[in-house]
């Protein structure tokens, strides 16, 4: 049932404050200021290396998590799309941890990678949304997302819930490694706990995004740029746009523009820049200005400070609430989803059932 929403995708985007809160409830003890995983029997302190495997949007959640695992826990992370992983003779640490991420828990490539790694002696942790799925059953450790059924082919609420679980896992790994003080843990719990309200703040920009959608709907190509954890978000934004609006879109690490893709820039190519204010902001803005100097039309997604500092001369700006960097990817996923959604609606495509796509890809 779509309720009073026009599409399942729209309903699922708007469910995110609730389902992220629901998911976080089984990972955070807010009063105690502690992060507790639903796998108490497993000792994370011996983990020396992590392998992450997933497809599509779930893969981009994994890319964000790589930044977190490395930054907080100082554990090296190898990540790959499932369809490549199995065929490149991957080197896995004996007794290492492999994390598979999947909404459905049935994606054939990810399931095959899970089985391969299990046969190689890896411990498998599964971040999955369907608790009765094959991956949930075959994994050693289950880290569920509680997004509820996701009907729209474009994954939205599953992604934000995956990020919430992965952030909790990264913090827990840091704790097991002796890299998180009691105060730091308490602060991280507080920041994560703020995510649902911040997502609500992001959703308040819905109408403004709808109003700017026609500017993008007429484009043939769109670029998305971001740095750090906003780089996987740029990839996710491009995937969302292409799958439901059929507009060609690419995501790039902002600093890579000058190594080739900047040649594409002219005034017909909208460039979506994802840049919360923070340590990476200046660098991203200078990449954005390189785009503007070549006539590129920029849509800047930032917070109030970021828009104040760099919003001038943009085609449009989208103002997000100011949030802690840990939850920024969860919050900034929202405008990226809404933009794809409204562009697709403006183009009149079948938003929930885009052509050539299935919700669950069960062939390799
Ligand atoms: O069920 P999964 O999370 O394993 O699915 C992975 C991809 O097929 C999925 O994320 C796909 O890329 C979505 N259509 C993206 O919106």
From TrEMBL:
Function: Catalyzes the first step in hexosamine metabolism, converting fructose-6P into glucosamine-6P using glutamine as a nitrogen source.
Region of the whole protein represented: 244 to 607 of 607
Class of the enzyme per the UniProt entry, highest EC level: transferase
Alphabetic keyword roster: Aminotransferase, Cytoplasm, Glutamine amidotransferase, Repeat, Transferase
Name of the protein in its database record: Glutamine--fructose-6-phosphate aminotransferase [isomerizing]
Cellular component, GO annotation: cytosol
Reaction(s) catalysed (UniProt annotation): D-fructose 6-phosphate + L-glutamine = D-glucosamine 6-phosphate + L-glutamate
Compartment(s) of residence: Cytoplasm
Subunit description: Homodimer.
Assigned EC number: 2.6.1.16
Domain of life assignment: Bacteria
Active-site residues annotated for this sequence: 359 (for fru-6p isomerization activity)
Main location: cytoplasm
Stretches assigned to the SIS domain: 39-179, 212-354
Gene Ontology molecular-function annotations: carbohydrate derivative binding; glutamine-fructose-6-phosphate transaminase (isomerizing) activity
């Amino acid at each position: 049932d779509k309720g009073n929403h026009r599409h399942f995708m729209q309903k699922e985007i708007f469910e995110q404050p609730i389902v992220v809160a629901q998911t976080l409830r089984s990972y955070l003890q807010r009063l105690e200021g502690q992060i507790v995983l639903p796998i108490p029997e497993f000792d994370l302190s011996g983990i020396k290396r992590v392998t992450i495997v997933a497809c599509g949007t779930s893969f981009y959640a994994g890319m964000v998590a790589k930044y977190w695992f490395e930054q907080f826990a100082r554990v090296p992370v190898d990540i790959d799309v499932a369809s490549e992983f199995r065929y490149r003779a991957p080197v896995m640490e004996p007794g290492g941890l492999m994390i598979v991420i999947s909404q459905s828990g049935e994606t054939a490539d990810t399931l095959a990678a899970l089985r391969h790694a299990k046969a190689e002696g890896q411990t498998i942790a599964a971040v999955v949304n369907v608790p009765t799925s094959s991956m949930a059953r075959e994994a050693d450790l289950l880290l569920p997302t509680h997004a509820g059924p996701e009907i729209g082919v474009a994954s939205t609420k599953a992604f934000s819930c995956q990020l919430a679980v992965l952030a909790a896992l990264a913090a827990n790994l840091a704790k097991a490694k002796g890299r998180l003080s009691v105060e730091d843990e308490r602060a991280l719990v507080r920041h994560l706990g703020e995510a649902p309200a911040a997502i609500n703040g992001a959703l308040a920009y819905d109408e403004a995004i709808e109003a700017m959608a026609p500017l993008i709907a007429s484009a043939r190509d769109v670029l998305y740029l971001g740095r750090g954890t906003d780089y996987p978000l740029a990839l996710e934004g491009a995937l969302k746009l292409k799958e439901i609006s059929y507009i060609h879109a690419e995501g790039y690490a902002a600093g890579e523009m000058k190594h080739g893709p900047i040649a594409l820039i002219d005034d017909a190519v909208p460039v979506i820049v994802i840049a919360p204010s923070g340590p990476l902001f200046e660098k991203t803005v200078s990449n954005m200005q390189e785009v503007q100097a070549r006539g590129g039309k920029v849509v800047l997604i930032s917070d109030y400070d970021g828009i104040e500092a760099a919003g001038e001369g943009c085609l449009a700006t989208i103002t997000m609430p100011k949030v802690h960097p840990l939850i920024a990817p969860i919050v900034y996923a929202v405008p990226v989803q809404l933009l794809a959604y409204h562009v697709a609606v403006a183009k009149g495509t079948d938003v929930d059932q885009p052509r050539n796509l299935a919700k669950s890809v069960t062939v390799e």
